[in-house]
Design goal:
- The protein folds into two domains: about 40-275, Pectate Lyase C-like, CATH 2.160.20; about 330-460, no CATH class.
- Helices cover about 15% and strands about 40% of the residues.
- InterPro entries: GH28_Enzymes, Glyco_hydro_28, PbH1, Pectin_lyas_fold, Pectin_lyase_fold/virulence.
- Keywords: Glycosidase, Hydrolase, Signal.
- Pfam families: Glyco_hydro_28 (PF00295).
- Belongs to the glycosyl hydrolase 28 family.
Length: about 450
């Protein structure tokens, strides 16, 4: 009798747990809210340190004044370091714990471009660990840091300095022209340790504008970024990151807007992107270095943003070796003839990486050049390798678009399935130029529900 009474109860419990799991899977946006609740936004003591009070009156740069103010603020328990209205020139700045570096409304902070004024720091360039000339704003291992205010950060990068032909392509010892980052890549392939991958002074690789490495509780809010030498905002191996109401306008080479790499709990909210590369690109390391760390990017939320020019509105990859999971994108407008794709996921069989649980909803697209969803499984024309990427559980819902070449453009290898379980629901796509509507290779399990393209219903594949 006891066995009979327990058995139905066990079944009931199992059924209840299964229903609970299914309910949770069916409501990924509730999981987004749960991720939001884990996000810690830093607060600071009510103390202000004004950089002009630390200026000696003779230096042509304000680097020392800013550094002294930051060091004093951090040492005294934290507060706000204020850069008043005006134009100030500086070399790279290093943030410290419990400091909010605040730009007044009419502040312009101009960064010099002479590599001799840049210290060498530990960082990562395109997913590869190295020591390079410092990012313009850098922090390592700090907690509770912020960069706020409505002022302008100007990297002053142009073809006379960071983008000069001599820097982008140099001549090696054999007289061969090489890309500026080729040597770093070869060092990684040759298993040279990161401690010996040093790029200092004139040999430095173009640095990121903002690089926050192994930091926790970060707030970036309100400012405008112009003329970056490389990626604009690059949180790396960091946690609890809020990027809010930032304007990113920079059209140089490799000018990604915001690239969280191997980061956890990230909110990108109410930002404006007009960039020379991907507006947002989520990353997690590349090749051997990515496999050494093996840390995914996860719990990334993008909402209420405006994307104009760029290679993609939101991209994942191509340096995605450590994987990526739990990404939510909602309530964004993406619109420009120079915006290539809306959502882009990219890797190859040398970089690898598993990308899963990607949820996109309520996106208004005016026009884009290529596709609404672009997936590149053979990125940079690499079709074979020991680490094939795998992308799955991708959801697009409530998207409208007025102009694109394709709805889906999935570029893989026939007979080699590396992408599956793609769900597109309640969407209307107009002005698709290519008669085929979709180009799909290397993917299966593509599901359409209540989707029209050029006025015709699209059926599941």
């Amino acid at each position: 009798m006891k066995t009979r009474s327990i058995f139905p109860a066990t079944l009931l419990l199992a059924a209840s747990l299964l229903a609970s799991c299914q309910s949770k899977e069916a409501n990924p946006w509730e999981e987004m809210n749960e991720a939001l609740s884990q996000l810690t936004i830093p607060t600071f003591p009510d103390k202000t340190f004004i950089i002009t009070e630390y200026y000696n009156g003779t230096d042509s740069l304000y680097t020392e004044a800013i550094s002294r103010a930051i060091d004093t603020c951090s040492a005294q328990g934290g507060g706000t370091v204020l850069i008043p209205n005006g134009t100030y020139r500086t070399a790279p700045i290093r943030l410290k714990s419990n400091v909010n570096l605040h730009l007044s409304d009419s502040t312009v902070l101009q960064f010099v471009t002479d590599p001799a004024l840049f210290p060498t720091v530990l960082t990562r360039i395109e997913g590869i660990d190295c020591h390079n000339v410092s990012p313009l704003i850098y922090a390592y291992g700090e907690t509770n840091i912020a960069l706020t205010g409505k002022g302008i950060l100007d990297g002053q990068a142009d073809t006379s300095n960071w983008f000069s032909p001599a820097r982008l392509k140099s001549i090696d010892e054999n007289g061969k022209e090489i890309n500026e980052k080729t040597l770093l890549y070869q060092m990684m392939k040759d298993s040279i340790p990161a401690s010996r991958r040093v790029f200092a002074g004139e040999k430095g690789i173009r640095p990121q504008f903002i690089n926050l490495y192994k930091c926790k509780n970060i707030l970036l809010e309100g400012f405008t970024l112009h003329r970056s030498p490389f990626w604009l905002i690059h949180p790396l191996l960091s946690e609890n990151i809020t990027v809010r109401k930032v304007i990113l306008q920079s059209h140089g080479r490799n000018n990604d807007g915001c690239d969280p790499e191997s980061c956890k709990n990230v909110l990108i909210d109410s930002c404006s992107f007009d960039t020379g590369d991907d507006c947002i690109a989520i990353k997690s390391g590349r090749d051997e270095d990515g496999r050494y760390w093996n840390i995914p990017s996860e719990n990334i939320i993008v909402r209420n943003c405006l994307m104009k020019d760029g290679h993609a509105g939101v991209a994942i990859g191509s340096e995605i070796t450590g994987g990526c999971q739990n990404v939510w994108v909602e309530n964004c407008r993406m619109d420009s003839p120079e915006l290539d794709r809306i959502i882009r996921i990219k890797s190859n069989s040398e970089r690898g990486g598993e990308v899963k649980n990607i949820f996109v909803r309520d996106i208004t697209v005016g026009e884009c050049k290529e596709s609404i969803l672009g997936i590149e499984l053979n990125y940079w024309h690499v079709e074979d390798g020991p680490y094939p990427p795998y992308f799955h559980n991708i959801h697009l819902e409530n998207i409208t678009s007025q102009k694109s070449n394709y709805l889906l453009h999935i570029d893989g290898t026939e007979g080699k399935i590396q992408a599956r379980d793609i769900f597109i629901k309640n969407c209307t796509f107009n002005g698709i130029a290519r008669p085929a509507i979709n180009y799909v290779s290397g993917a299966e399990g593509i599901h359409f529900e209540n989707v029209t393209a050029n006025g015709k219903e699209i059926k599941s594949r």
